[in-house]
């Protein structure tokens, strides 16, 4: 009996994908995809329109999608097979770690999505250096939960459902950011599958040019299957949630910004602003106070939080001492899309008077229905601008706005924020105009990235997420000057 079941499974794994689907599922297939040529090891876990699992994999966090196929490889060799196959298809192609990205580029309509959900292990490689190998499909909530029993933590955004592969190759502005810097600052190695199917290990000693580019522009270079990160020793943290009256929005921002910059690096604070809409405008602060190698000191935390509360009339406050895994919690990975927001993102040096007034004018324009400011800087600004492909090492805040109309948001943003912003953080941006690239990757970073791109992706296979064009020779052939 056992042998018969095994034989049936082997047979199912080698049969064409069409042989395992009913008439209705076959009718839902999309043009431009040769479903029956899909390698058997990928076909066994692939999801098509009409499949029972399709609704659970088609969307991302805020973006509705209708891909023609979702591949779920398990391991670098299957990723390589998927990349070889997808390059023969006449459709759009996207890579997904956990599908949380605000930009929405981890899903599409009618194309192929390569989902890393099958690679989500969290493995301690070296206890002494706190080196951890993390699958690109894992979420940061899963990482935090695994590290917490050891008293370890790594800064990783502000929501546990975010995927490791996306944030860990773009930047990583998180709740421990002023204490630890960016997430990418702690990446020490990566496994990458390139467009031509090579499985490479990148580090300071192996493919150092690729390693440099992965930390800030990784989505342009290949599919990262795992990252090795040296995490911090962080005990319990103080997590504060505070509500302030934001009637004087510019004054609140200026005071809050100055207080954050003057605070010890253990304090990182994020703000969400509401436009009011006929009611009292409010600001919600989420603040973490942490210490390297020990529990946070509650008395010191209280003193710093009292200074933050002085930025505006206090409407409510609660704080608790808990592990970092209680702040960045494990979340349900199922996404149902919806909203499909337009977004803009920019970096700010300081929340001085001019900048604070510009943010206030953006809010009063009514174009942004969700406006947030994240404190960055601190330890992240100790890193040299040319050390990684993320070159923004003097700014102290990141501003993002969500809206229902991209053109109207662009007009308001360009008028008010454009004159005061200093670079961009692309994870929160949906504006596809070409100038976004140089805001995110200022020279000489951009030229250097083009050179690296020409080595590892000369045909520009990875071009759906703020694509960096490969360098060209005088004759116009991509990559020939690399």
Describe the secondary-structure layout:
Elements: H1 2-14, H2 23-27, H3 40-43, H4 54-57, E1 69-71, H5 76-86, E2 93-96, E3 112-115, E4 122-126, E5 131-135, H6 140-147, E6 152-153, H7 164-170, H8 177-180, E7 187-193, E8 199-202, H9 208-217, E9 223-230, E10 232-233, E11 237-245, H10 249-262, E12 267-273, E13 282-289, H11 298-309, E14 314-322, E15 342-348, H12 353-364, E16 370-375, E17 397-403, H13 406-416, H14 435-440, H15 445-456
Parallel strand pairs: 1-3, 2-3
Antiparallel strand pairs: 4-5, 5-9, 6-10, 7-8, 7-9, 11-13, 11-14, 12-13, 12-16, 15-17, 16-17
Descriptors:
single chain; 482 residues; alpha+beta; seven-stranded antiparallel β-sheet; 15 helices; 17 strands; 28% helix; globular; disordered C terminus
Work out the radius of gyration: 23 Å
Outline:
globular
Helix content: 25-40%
Number of helical stretches of at least 4 residues: 15
Mean pLDDT: 91
How does the major sheet shape up? 7 strands, antiparallel
Low-confidence stretches: 1-13, 473-482
% residues in beta strands: 15-25%
Number of strands: 17
Care to describe what's here?
By secondary structure, the protein is α+β, with helices and mostly antiparallel strands. It contains 15 helices and 17 strands. It has a seven-stranded antiparallel sheet with strand order 14-11-13-12-16-17-15. It has a five-stranded antiparallel sheet with strand order 4-5-9-7-8. A hairpin with a 4-residue loop joins strand 4 and strand 5. Helix 10 crosses helix 12.
Give a short synopsis of this structure:
By secondary structure, the chain is α+β, with helices and mostly antiparallel strands. The chain is 28% helix and 20% strand. β4 (122-126) and β5 (131-135) form a beta hairpin.
């Amino acid at each position: 009996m056992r042998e018969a079941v095994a034989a049936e499974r082997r047979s199912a794994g080698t049969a064409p994908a069409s042989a395992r689907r009913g008439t209705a599922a076959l009718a839902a297939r999309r043009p431009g995809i040769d479903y029956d040529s899909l390698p058997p090891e990928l076909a066994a876990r692939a999801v098509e329109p009409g499949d029972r699992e399709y609704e659970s994999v088609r969307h991302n966090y805020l973006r509705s999608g209708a891909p023609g196929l979702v591949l779920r490889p398990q391991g670098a060799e299957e990723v390589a097979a998927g990349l070889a196959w997808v390059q023969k298809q006449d459709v759009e192609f996207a890579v997904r770690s956990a599908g949380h990205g605000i930009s929405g580029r981890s899903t599409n309509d009618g194309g192929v999505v390569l989902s890393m959900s099958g690679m989500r292990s969290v493995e301690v490689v070296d206890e002494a250096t706190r080196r951890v190998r993390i699958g690109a499909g894992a979420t940061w909530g899963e990482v935090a939960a695994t590290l917490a029993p050891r008293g370890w933590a790594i800064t990783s955004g502000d929501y546990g459902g975010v995927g490791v592969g996306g944030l860990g190759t773009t930047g990583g502005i998180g709740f421990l950011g002023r204490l630890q810097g960016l997430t990418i600052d702690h990446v020490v190695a990566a496994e990458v599958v390139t467009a031509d199917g090579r499985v490479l290990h990148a580090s300071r000693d192996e493919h150092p040019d690729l390693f440099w580019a992965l930390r800030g522009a990784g989505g342009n270079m290949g599919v990262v299957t795992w990252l090795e990160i040296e995490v911090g020793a962080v005990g319990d943290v103080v997590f504060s949630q505070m509500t302030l009256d934001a009637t004087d929005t510019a004054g609140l921002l200026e005071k809050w910004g100055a207080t954050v910059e003057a605070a010890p690096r253990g304090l990182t604070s994020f703000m969400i602003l509401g436009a009011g809409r006929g009611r009292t405008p409010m600001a919600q602060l989420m603040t973490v106070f942490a210490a390297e190698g020990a529990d946070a000191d509650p008395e010191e935390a209280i003193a710093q939080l009292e200074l933050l509360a002085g930025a505006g009339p206090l409407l409510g406050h609660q704080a608790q001492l808990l592990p970092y895994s209680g702040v960045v919690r494990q979340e349900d990975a199922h996404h149902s899309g919806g909203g499909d927001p337009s977004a803009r993102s920019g970096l700010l040096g300081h929340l001085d008077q001019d900048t604070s007034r510009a943010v206030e004018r953006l809010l009063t324009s009514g174009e942004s229905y969700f406006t947030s400011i994240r404190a960055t800087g601190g330890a992240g600004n100790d890193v040299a601008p040319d050390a990684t492909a993320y070159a923004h090492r003097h700014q102290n805040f990141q501003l993002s706005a969500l809206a229902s109309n991209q053109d109207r948001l662009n007009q308001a943003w360009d008028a008010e924020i454009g004159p005061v912003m200093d670079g961009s953080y692309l994870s929160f941006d949906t504006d596809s105009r070409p100038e976004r690239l140089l805001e995110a990757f200022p020279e000489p970073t951009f030229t250097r990235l083009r050179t690296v791109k020409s080595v590892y992706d000369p045909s520009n296979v990875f071009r759906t997420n703020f694509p960096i064009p490969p360098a060209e020779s005088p004759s116009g052939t991509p990559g020939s000057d690399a």
